[in-house]
Design a protein that fits this description.
Number of strands: 2
Largest sheet: 2 strands, parallel
Order of helices and strands: HEHE
Distance between the termini: 11 Å
Strand content: 5-15%
Oligomer: single chain
Shape: globular
Number of helices: 2
Helix content: 25-40%
Length: 69
């Protein structure tokens, strides 16, 4: 999970992921199934400029935006 979300708090998103058997981690790894991204990063940059986004892209992991989640 990376960035700021417009319709849900990070805490509620994390709870939903856990409720359905998922895990939230601090980084993208080989075990990552999806990266869920918000509309921008906490520092105001576009999510595509973040390290998690770049790592997920490099590892060919699916990236979901808030609506896709």
């Amino acid at each position: 999970m990376s960035g700021i979300f417009s319709e849900i708090t990070r805490e509620k998103l994390e709870a939903l992921i856990s409720e359905y058997g998922g895990r939230v981690t601090g980084s993208v790894s080989g075990k990552t199934d999806y990266l869920v991204v918000g509309y921008k990063l906490e520092d105001g940059r576009e999510v595509t400029l973040g390290g998690k986004y770049r790592n997920a892209t490099a590892k060919k992991k699916p990236i979901l935006d808030e609506a896709g989640f």
